[in-house]
Amino acid sequence: MKAILISLLSLGILIGVFATSSSPESAQQATNANRDVTYASVLSAVDDGAAFVDVRTPAEYYESHYVGAELFPLQELQQGKLPAYDTDTPLYVYCRSGNRTKEAAAVLRRAGYEVIDLGGLQDVGAIGGELTRDTCPLGDAQLCINQFSVDG
Fold first, then answer.
1. Cα distance between residue 58 and residue 145, in whole Å
2. What is the pTM of this model?
């Protein structure tokens, strides 16, 4: 009887481990982790039609962001707004630490998008990312933040 209980308990633990590790979210994270992604490959993909998306706030974006990235704040996704890309367009997504990226990636994947979660600023820097601070088309980051808030 004791042997059967131990066997059943062991089986339950194994099933729990495999069920957790084989979830779609875990499988997607493993796929992303195994990709040979470099900053050069991200920019090359953008040249081929992919998107490089910063999901931080406008203030964070206009303070600095990676060259080639466009702003699409997580809060826009949370409000149900989606980027104007076909769902088969690869979206390379990052934020400050990686937390918002995970949430944004989940929302985008549920909407059918192909998402490559690049993590946070340090992660993108580690693959060769180059930060820029001078892309506000109005010449002043605060004007851009105000403009985005009025238009958004």
1. 6
2. 0.70
